[in-house]
Amino acid sequence: MCHRVVDGLCGREPPCRSDYSTTWSLEEWLQLLDFLTSLFRLAVGNDIPDEEVLAKLSDADHSHAEAVLSVLRARWEEIRRALLDRTSSISSATLQDFDWQLKLALSSDKISSLNTPLISLCLDVRENGALRPITMELNREEVSTLISSLEAANKVVLQLK
C-alpha cells in the first residue's frame, strides 16, 4: 500500500480504494491516504530524520511503522524528484535579477504635503527563454503585503519539496 501511495505522489497510479475496501471504511481509507501522503511529503521535503518519522507513526504497530519507514528510505530520492518537479512546474518564470530604490514623495497634484516613502522595485523575469522587465512602485502597506505573499509562497514551496 505504501509503495502505491508513493506511486501516486510520483504521478503514477495511486492506490485504488476497491483493493482495500474490506480492510478500511471510506472515511478510514481517506484519512490513511491523506496521512501517508502528507507524511511522505513532509519527511522528504523537510529532510526529517527516521526517529521523527517513527514518532509521527507512534499510534501504529511497530511493524507497520517500520514498513512505512522502509518504503520511505527506499524511495526517498524518487519522492524528492517528484516534489521538485511539481514545485518547478508551478511556473516557468524565474527571477533573474532585481533592483530597488527608496523614494520619498513630498507632494502630489492632489495633496501639497505628502511625505510618503515609496519603493521602486524592478524585476527581471525570464519566462520561456525571454527576459521580461517588470517595474512597480509600492507604498509601505503594499510592500508589507508583497513580503507576506512571498513568505507564504516560500512556505508552500518548502512544503512541496
Automatic annotation (TrEMBL):
Show the InterPro entries listed in the entry.
COMM (IPR017920), COMMD4/6/7/8 (IPR047155), COMMD8_HN (IPR055184)
Pfam families assigned? COMM_domain, COMMD8_HN
**Limits of the COMM domain:** 94-161
Q: What is this protein called?
A: COMM domain containing 8
Instruction: Give the species this sequence originates from.
Output: Poecilia reticulata (Guppy)
Task: Supply the source organism's classification.
Answer: Eukaryota, Metazoa, Chordata, Craniata, Vertebrata
